[in-house]
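Quick one - inputs below.
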Amino acid sequence: AQTVTQSQPEMSVQEAETVTLSCTYDTSESDYYLFWYKQPPSRQMILVIRQEAYKQQNATENRFSVNFQKAAKSFSLKISDSQLGDAAMYFCAYRRPSGGGADGLTFGKGTHLIIQP
Amino acid sequence: NAGVMQNPRHLVRRRGQEARLRCSPMKGHSHVYWYRQLPEEGLKFMVYLQKENIIDESGMPKERFSAEFPKEGPSILRIQQVVRGDSAAYFCASSRRTVEGANVLTFGAGSRLTVL
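Output:
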């Protein structure tokens, strides 16, 4: 079974600084998808960024980028120029390719990101 | 274009009662997923449905829990004879037709169930 581990329960960063959230996962698949979701106090789950395992290039979305290390099974999220609105729980998630009906996401336990003004 | 709509947002039940949570997927989405989030935990997959079909219920408890996605109307997650341990936030997500798992899931705002 796949597992996703986020080893940092909480991280704190000064506004405008850069912070990196860690995520590792365990899988025997060679093809899969990785995601970072943000959950602000409103509890809405918002997709931040997505990475296909077959792509070597790291995904980027404006201030958000990932460092995807397939061999190490590591998928960290870097937030540049942190803003107060970035404060939230961040969840790393894994999804295997569809087939056999098992399309659900496997989530880590989350990292609570605090932005210090 | 409304997103994934869940209701009720908050539901309080006494032990032994039934809870029904509803989810209307995004327009054009035919796949629905239910997840449960316990306090201080990530989301745990429960069940994946298409219209009138349960595709994967590997994450759903075998007893008291059921889910449906009828041809017309919202998807329903039903919990019978609720116990305190069922208190959690229940999230619904939807997606378009799945293509090799690449489709992004769009989540609703969740339904928070409190069992007294």
